[in-house]
Amino acid sequence: MEKSSGLIFEKSSRGRKAFSLPEAAMPETEIESLIPGKYLRKNLRFPEISELDIVRHFTHLASKNFNVDGNFYPLGSCTMKYNPKVNEDIASMEKFRDIHPMFPEKYVQGILSLLKEMEEMLCRITAMDAFCLYPAAGAHGEFLGMLLIRAYHERKGKIRKKIIVPDSSHGTNPSSVHMAGYEVVSIASDKNGEVDLEALESALDEEVAAFMMTNPNTLGLFESKILEIAEKVHSRGALLYYDGANLNPLLGICRPGDMGFDVVHLNLHKTFSTPHGGGGPGSGPVGVKKHLVPFLPVPVIEEKDGGLILNRQKPQSVGSIKSFFGNVGVIIKAYSYIKALGDEGLKRTGKLSVLNANYLKQKLKGSYHLPFDKTCMHEFVLSAKKQLDSGIHAVDIAKGLIDRGIHPPTVYFPMIVEEAIMIEPTETESKNTLDEFVNTMKEIAGLAAKTPEILKKAPIKMSVKRLDEVQAARVLDVCWNFEKPEDEGQEDG
Amino acid sequence: MDYVPHSEADISSILKEMNIGDIEDLYSSVPEKIKIKSRRLERGLSEFELKALIRKKAEKNLAVTEIKSFMGGGAYEHFIPAVVDHIAMKPEFYTAYTPYQPEASQGALQVIYEYQSLICELTGMDASNASLYDGATAAAEAALMSINKDGPGDVLISAAVNPEYVEVIKTYLKGTKGRILMVPSPEGVTSVEFLKGLSAKKPVCFIFQSPNYYGCIEDVENLSEIAHSFAALSIAIVNPVSLGVLKSPGSMGADIVVGEGQPLGIPLSYGGPYLGFMAVKKKFIRKLPGRIVGRTTDKEGNPGFVLTLQTREQHIRREKANSNICSNQALMALRATVFMTYMGKEGMKTLAEANINNSHYLSKSIEKTGKAHLKFKRPFFNEFVLEFKKPANLVFDKFVNKNMFPGILLKGEMDKRILCCVTETKTKADLDGFIEIIKDL
Lengths: 493, 441
Hints:
The complex is a heterodimer. Chain A is an alpha/beta fold. Chain A folds into three domains: about 10-60, no CATH class; about 85-340, Type I PLP-dependent aspartate aminotransferase-like (Major domain) (Aspartate Aminotransferase, domain 2); about 350-475, Aspartate Aminotransferase, domain 1 (Alpha-Beta Complex). Chain A has helices spanning about 50-60, 85-90, 95, 110-125, 140-155, 170-180, 195-205, 225-235, 255-260, 330-365, 385-390, 395-405, 430-450, 450-455, 470-475, and strands spanning about 130, 160-165, 185, 210-215, 240-245, 265, 285-290, 300-305, 305-310, 380-385, 410, 420-425. Residues about 485-493 of chain A have low confidence and may be disordered. By secondary structure, chain B is of the alpha/beta class. Chain B folds into two domains: about 65-80 and about 345-440, Alpha-Beta Complex (Aspartate Aminotransferase, domain 1); about 80-340, Type I PLP-dependent aspartate aminotransferase-like (Major domain) (Aspartate Aminotransferase, domain 2). In chain B, about 35% of the residues lie in helices and about 15% in strands. Chain B contains 13 helices and 15 strands. Chain B has helices at about 10-20, 45-60, 80-90, 90-95, 105-125, 135-150, 165-170, 190-195, 220-230, 315, 330-370, 390-400, 430-440, and strands spanning about 70, 125-130, 155-160, 180-185, 205-210, 235-240, 255-260, 275-280, 295, 305, 370-375, 385-390, 405, 410, 415-420. In chain B, the strands form four sheets. A seven-stranded mixed β-sheet of chain B has the order 2-8-7-6-5-3-4, with helices on both faces. Chain B has a four-stranded antiparallel β-sheet with strand order 11-12-15-14, covered by helices on one side. A two-stranded parallel ribbon of chain B has the order 1-13. The mean pLDDT of chain B is about 95. The interface between A and B is large, with 195 and 198 residues.
C-alpha cells in the first residue's frame, strides 16, 4: 500500500481554486460598506486546491480504510452488518433530504408519518408502549433514559441516588449514569458470566433508581434469570433499563418489554443496518412502558384532525435533548430496513446471527482460550491467555488480522476478561467468509506458538506500521501548524 | 427480503457440523414464557415494493427545491458541491466504524485530523474534537465542561441564543447542580449592563451566540472580557459560514467555541444528521469531550494518525469520563472537511460575502417599502428580524400563496415578527419577488 498521502494543507498552491458560486444581488458592493471593519477578519489560511486534486486526495484516503463493503469486520458489540444500498438511495431522495425542519407540519406529512410509523414498529419489535426517535446515538439514548428514570422517581417524590451497572457493561453506561447525576454502583458477574443475583440483591436498596443491563450481555450470553431479576428490581420500586446494543440476536425471538424492562434504547446503526459512517451518525431511539410516557422529550408526533402535528405541550416532559427531531436521515434507512425484512426477515436475522457466532466459537475454541464455554448469542469472547506464554497479546492477534485483510474483533473489552477478543460475525456473512476467518485465526494461533516475533511486527502490509500512541498523547499534535510561511515549499517548483 | 446470504444447504451443513438439530436449540437459555408467538409486523417487501412505498411517502413532503424558503434559525439552505456527496458516498468512508485500529483506518483518521485543523483555523482555537451530535448538544457539552471544572455553579446564557439550544442546555444540566441565568437582549444583542450586573453570582461560564438567533453580530471581544472579569469561561456559539469574513472568536478571547456544522455541506434532512463542532484553547484540551485525533509516527518513523487522549473517554474511564459520547457524527465531519476544502481560502470568503450581500439587498429594499422594518438596526450576517404592522401569520400566508416561506414566525411581541434568512441560494430575482409581496401587504 502507498505510504503517506500528505496533508491537504501541503497540497495547497496559491491562486488555485475549486469553488464556483452564484452571483450576489449587489455585485458592485464592497463588504466593508455593509459590515463594520472591526468585525472583519484579515485572513483565513484555508488550502487552495483544484477540484480534481481534492477528489484524488480523498479517494486516496478512502483506500486506506477497512470497511464493511470491502472487509470482514467482526467487531464485537458493534454489529457491523451489511448496509443495504437501497437504504442509501432512499435517504438521499430530494423530498427527504431537502426539507427544512421548521417547515409547517402540513408540508411534511410524509416524513412525519414515516417517523410515527417507525415509532410504532419499534414498539412492536421491543414490546414497549412509546418511542422517542430523537437521540443521535446509543450513548445519547442512555443519557435520555437516565433522565426519564430521574423524572419518574421525582414524580413519585424522590429521585433516589444510585444506578446499578454490571462490571461487564459498556463504558457508556456508567458514564451516562454519571452525566444524569446518579452514583454508579458496579456489581460483579457470577462464575457463569451472568448477573450475580446475590450481588444484585445486596446492592438493591431504597436509593437505587434503576438497574441498567445489556441482554445478551457483553460476553454474548443471554441473562437466563432475567425474569427473576426484573421481579427483584421492581419489588424495590426501581426500574429496569435495557441497553439495546445487543438486540440483534433476539429479533423475532423475544422482546425486552416482555422481559420486564421499563426503558430501552436501541442502536439503529447496529441492529437496524444503518452504516456506521466511520464513527457516526448513529441513532439511539428510546422506548418506554406506559408509566414513563409522560416524561418523553418534546415535541411528540400526534394525530389531529386527520393529519400529524408536533405537540410541544407536555408539562411533565424532560424537555429537548437535541435540536429538531433526531438524525432523521439515519432513521429513514432503518425504517426501510425493517420494511424490507418484515417479521420473517427479522427472525431470520436474529437466528442466523446466533448460528454464525456459535459456529465460529465452536471452530475457534480449540485454538484460543474460551472463558465461558456455553451457547452464546450473536457474539462471544475469546481470550489470548494461551498465547501469552509466547509473549503474544490480543493486540498482536488483532494486528495480524489486519495484514490478512480482516478488521480485528473488539479487543480488551469486556474488561472482566483478560486479553479479551470479542467476536461478532453478524448474520450477513456467508459460511465461506466464516471458514476463511477460522483458517486465518488458526494460522495466527500457529504463528503465535511457533514464530511470535513475526506476529509482533504486524501489520506490515498497511501504509503505516504499528503507531506510537504513547507519543501521540505525550507530544500532542492535533492541529496543522498554519504558522508555516505560506511560500515555504508549497508552490510548485 | 432480508440480507442473509445462507442457503438452506448452508444452514444444514453448519448445523450438521455443530451437531445440533435446529437453530432454535441455541435459544435454550431464553425462558419459553417470553418467546414471541405471533406476528408483529407486516410481511417484508421486495426492493421494488419498498421504493414504491417510500416514494408515496416522499410525495407528501415539500422540498426546498419546490418553494423559495427564507427559513434559517439553526438549519440553513446552502449550495452543496457535487464533490461533497460523491466523496461522502464512498463506502470506504461510510461503511467503516470508529477508527479504533489505526493501521486499518488511516483514511478516516487523517480526514478527522484535517477537519480538526480546519475548524481550529476557522474559529481561531488550538484544538477541536472529532465532532458532537449537533450545535445544541455541543453548546450543552460546553456548559457541562465548565461545570465539571468548577463544581456547581451558575451558567449565564444570553437570551439572544437560539431558544432550542437553551432548551437542550437546560435538559443536559438536569443531572448537575448548575443553574441557568438568562441575560436579556432587548436591543437584539446581549445587554452588557445586565451581564456586568450578574458578576456577584460568580458564574462558571457565559454562553452567547454570534451571529445570534436574531442574526445580529455580537461584540465577542467585549463579552469575553466581561466573562473573564468574573472568572467565567467565554463560550461562543458561531455560524461557521459567517467566519469566512468575520473575525474568529478565538482571536477575541473566547475559551470554547461551538456551533452547528450543518451549513458546511450537510443537507437539511428535516433536522439531522447534522454536525456539532467544538474547539478550545490549549489549556482546555484535556477537558474536551469525544474523540480527538493526533499525529504521531510508526515504529519506523513514518507519520500516521491515531485516536489520542483516550483516557478522557468513557470506554477507558467509565463514570469518570468527560462525557458519555461514543459514536459522534464522523461522516458529517467528512462532509464539512470536503466542503471547506472545496471552498478553500477564497471560496469561504466569497460565500460569506454573498450571504451578507444578498441579505442586505433584501433588508434595505424592504425598509424602502415602508411596509415592514428591521426590528434591530445592528450589523448582521444572513438573518434579520422583520416586524410587520399586521400579525405575522397573515403575512406568512400571503407568501405561501406565492410559493414562498418568508422565514420563521417568532413568538411574542404580539406575534408580528418573522426571522428571515437569505443565503447565496437566492437570486436577485427571488429577492425582488419577495419585495413585491411586501409592497402588496
